[in-house]
Specification:
It is a single chain. By secondary structure, the chain is α/β, with parallel strands linked by helices. The chain has 3 domains: 169 residues, Ribosomal Protein S5, domain 2 (2-Layer Sandwich), CATH 3.30.230; 189 residues, P-loop containing nucleotide triphosphate hydrolases (Rossmann fold), CATH 3.40.50; 69 residues. It has 18 helices and 20 strands. It has an 8-stranded mixed β-sheet, covered by helices on one side. Helix 1 links the parallel strand 3 and strand 4. Helix 5 runs parallel beside helix 7, helix 5 packs across helix 16 and helix 14 packs parallel to helix 17. The protein binds zinc ion. The site of zinc ion has 7 residues, from loops.
């Protein structure tokens, strides 16, 4: 078995990106190439102790270690984490399929913590940004290194981890039922740019409801012509979500419809469970563009996980369970031609076919349904105020309704005709809208606003 990966060696400022190759075969010998044998032995000793300390077994194989460019004794500790990943992969404990595109910075302590042996925070990372090899797409580093990565670096992702166990657990929220559960020590940060919406013209209605949905954890479905702001608005959602969770960074995951069920929720592949976008977006934003283009099984599998926040896969090889709570934001064209409304060129049959792509039970799970693309109004709160509002506590119980609002709601078509789920959801929307207005009691205006964003459910999508 041959594993290729990368180390980031901070003691080599001229050539910090070091290609690491480990070949494992039966036996116990260790051969080295490109690094001193003594230093490699010391690294393996640290590794063995660190793995044992966090309860992971060291796999015994004959190993051939090759690194390029050549490393000195002082450089080798910086390769500890790269060696650890490779050995965990060889031992079947690390599911990451893309080690050959992953670089590892930092050394290990004997207790399995990730540390920097000689330098302070990873300022060198920004120093060396020009020389990032094209094969390297992500870097695993200790807490704090992330902030110092250059803004326009070519790395798609940084994985911030503090401990070997966090590395093993670096696919968020998945664990194998047959293995001991791993304590969750680290988190995956997707380094999504913190976009705000001040440059997006108009769309005050959508902006208001995105803020409300972020704070009140409500799934959103946006409908609108292509190129009219759905994706731009969705990209601001990670900032909204992070703010509402009082954190600085959350994953933003946007899978492609071609990925199907496996890409969306996960699948069993080559003997190992592979989490899908839904699991990887845990705690962050799952953006599903072209929602009606997803294969029906994928959309329906989403319905299940939206209900339970949980997915179980059972195969002959074993079972896996993922739990995940992403904020789901989906977008779709209004019809097959994409123009919608008066400009629509679709026949009634085509319109009906497009609408039938989303089943009623699935649509019902998207509490907030927005029309985007033709709204000149501005958001009643400026961006800074939106962020401040998101950090205020959600009023949980005892939300008061004005009598007229209560009566209007009880007599509305939705309350009389819609399913229990939609009724409950619309009631919560009215209360969330009252929270947004910061006016105290729920008024008739809030009820109207809530009914207004359940239009797809109402109009027989
Ligand atoms: Zn059309």
């Amino acid at each position: 078995m041959l594993i290729r990966t990368w180390g980031f060696v901070a003691t080599k400022p001229q050539r910090p990106w070091v290609a690491v190759e480990i070949r494992a075969e039966r036996g116990a010998l260790m051969r080295t190439s490109g690094l001193p044998a003594g230093a490699a032995q010391e690294s393996m000793a640290r590794l063995r102790a660190a793995l044992a300390h966090v309860g992971l077994r060291h796999s015994t194989h004959a190993l051939t270690l090759h690194v390029h460019p050549t490393c000195t004794k002082d450089d080798v500790p910086h390769l500890d984490l790269a060696f650890a990943s490779a050995l965990l992969k060889i031992g079947g404990r690390l599911q990451a399929q893309d080690l050959q595109h992953t670089a590892h910075a930092r050394a290990l302590t004997l207790s399995g913590d990730i540390q920097d042996p000689t330098l302070g925070p990873a300022t060198v990372l920004s120093m060396c940004r020009a020389s990032v090899p094209p094969e390297v797409q992500r870097i695993v580093h200790a807490p704090g290194g992330d902030a110092l990565l250059p803004e326009n670096h070519s790395l798609q992702q940084g994985w911030e981890i503090s401990n070997l166990l966090a590395l093993v657990n670096s696919k968020p929220s998945w664990r194998n039922l047959h293995a001991a559960p791993f304590p969750k020590l680290g988190r995956v940060s997707a380094n999504h740019p913190k976009l705000h919406w001040e440059e997006i013209q108009g769309e005050g209605h959508a902006k208001s409801w995105l803020a409300i949905a972020a704070k009140h954890r409500l799934p959103v479905l946006m409908s609108g012509p292509p190129g009219r702001g759905k994706t731009s608005l969705a990209k601001t959602c990670s900032a909204l979500r992070a703010q509402s969770l009082h954190t600085s960074d959350v994953p933003w995951v946007a899978p492609h419809p071609a990925g199907g069920v496996a890409g969306l929720v996960g699948a069993w592949r080559q003997g190992a469970p592979q989490p899908g976008a839904w699991a990887q977006a845990d705690g962050g934003v799952l953006f599903l563009d072209e929602f009606s283009e997803w294969p029906r099984p994928a959309r329906e599998s989403l319905r299940h996980v939206m209900e339970t926040d949980r997915l179980e896969l059972h195969r002959a090889e074993g079972s896996a369970v993922w739990t995940s709570k992403p904020w789901i934001v989906a977008a779709t064209n209004p019809c097959t031609c994409g123009r919608g409304h008066e400009q629509c060129l679709c026949s009634p049959a085509e319109r009906k076919l497009h609408r039938k792509k989303c089943s009623a039970p699935l649509l019902e799970r998207f509490s907030v349904q927005l029309e985007v693309g033709n709204d000149p109004s501005t958001c009643p709160k400026p961006w800074d105020e939106v962020l401040a509002w998101l950090t205020r506590p959600v009023p949980t119980e005892g939300v008061l309704w004005e009598d007229a609002a209560r009566e209007g709601w009880l007599n509305s078509d939705i309350h009389r005709q819609a399913s229990l789920r939609v009724r409950a959801s619309t009631g919560r929307l009215a209360e969330a809208h009252a929270d947004w207005r910061e006016g105290g009691k729920v008024t008739s205006e809030d009820v109207r606003a809530a009914v207004d964003v359940t239009w797809m459910t109402r109009e027989g999508w």
